[in-house]
Amino acid sequence: MNALYTLSIHLYSLLIRLTAPFNIKARQISQGRQKTFQELSAKIRHDKPIVWVHCASLGEFEQGRPVIEAIRKDHPGHQILLTFFSPSGYEIRKNYDLADYICYLPADTKRNARKLLDLVKPEIVFFVKYEFWHYYLNELKRRNIPLYLVSAIFRENQQFFRDTPWGKWYRQMLFCFEHFFVQDEHSIELLNQIGIKNVTRAGDTRFDRVAEIARNGKHLPLVEKFKGNSLLVVAGSTWKPDEELLAEYILSHPETKFIIAPHETKRANIDRLINLLKTTIICYTEATDETVMNKQVMIVDTIGVLSSIYRYADLAYIGGGFGVGIHNTLEAAIFGMPIVFGPNYLKFNEATSMVKLGVAFPVSDSDSVNKLLQQLLSDTEKRNLIALECTKFTEQNLGATQIILNKVFNRQ
């Protein structure tokens, strides 16, 4: 099995190099990996112990971030190495100021694993959510370096729980971890079934992150002025199918204000969205006290403000549910409001929990979204009850980060 795995890693690395001239993400990961050892060799210091945090991409970074920031605050004598697998994480967070070193994770080979650990010599290692790399995990285990998995979720259909040759091979990687911090009881049950008992239900660290964002959120007078006395729907991280779904309701309900923050903020996409909606529209970067008046839709054509905008919403629509999966629902939920999203949400534990609680609502087509928005926006009492339940849900799930740090640093 090792030989097949190694072959697959080399073939994937070759594919990245071959497609790099034609694909920007392949080029970024290929060039980034080539620089990792050189940059670490030039910069790494060993005057303080190093904590290594590895995230696949941007979403996992948001789960690892509260841990990094808590370590920085509570254990300032440690350095932080932050690694990414994906360009969508590294390219956005390569200048993150609370990590001492930020780089791509080199391909998972025995040589690379030994070389990286020889260079870094980490005292503690955190992998976030789904990352399982055979040679890195086994080399950490061989060197007795404690490795922790945080904000993890396990499901029956994962390889670890299959009685096949591949399943048994993958399962062995789990025994390289010192401890698992999982999001739910079902993950504990699955791990217990295969003999793994070193598990704690800590929850999702993103709750701690969004609570911090909410506490430090920006006051946005332009958004407040845009909303006025109208009901406001904030549609965050939307894609084309989401926007097409909402367009009919927007056009037929001019009394309701909408703020749309598309996932893609390039001008061509903003122009497409403006042409789709055919109503009175203002872009966030062009808005003034005068120009926001009497507009129905504001399009957020920049990044970094969506999490603060949610505080002004009466209802949130979260994009991505007609693609691979919904975006961050917790940024909206922390402010207490009904949450709406497309059908592809089942892999997101917080979303399924909110649906069961009756504070989040999946939709599948324009008819269902029109009926749902009409129902929720016309019933103030129901929205207020949902908001209370939503706030209670987020408050009950705070504290994962402290549970993790207590266990890791105090060995509780």
Summarize the SSE layout with pairings.
Elements: H1 2-19, H2 24-43, E1 50-55, H3 58-74, E2 79-84, H4 87-93, E3 101-104, H5 110-120, E4 124-128, H6 134-142, E5 147-152, H7 165-174, E6 179-182, H8 185-193, E7 199-201, H9 206-215, H10 221-227, E8 232-238, H11 240-252, E9 257-262, H12 267-277, E10 281-283, E11 297-299, H13 306-309, E12 315-318, H14 330-333, E13 339-341, H15 349-357, E14 360-362, H16 366-377, H17 380-396, H18 400-410
What can you see in these coordinates?
- The protein has a seven-stranded parallel β-sheet, sandwiched between helices. A seven-stranded parallel β-sheet has the order 10-11-9-8-12-13-14.
- It has helices at residues 2-19, 24-43, 58-74, 87-93, 110-120, 134-142, 165-174, 185-193, 206-215, 221-227, 240-252, 267-277, 306-309, 330-333, 349-357, 366-377, 380-396, 400-410, and strands at residues 50-55, 79-84, 101-104, 124-128, 147-152, 179-182, 199-201, 232-238, 257-262, 281-283, 297-299, 315-318, 339-341, 360-362.
- The chain has two domains: 2-204 and 399-410, 3-Layer(aba) Sandwich (Rossmann fold); 218-396, Rossmann fold (3-Layer(aba) Sandwich).
- The longest helix is centred in the first third of the chain and has 20 residues, at 24-43.
- It has 412 residues and is an alpha/beta fold.
- It has 18 helices and 14 strands.
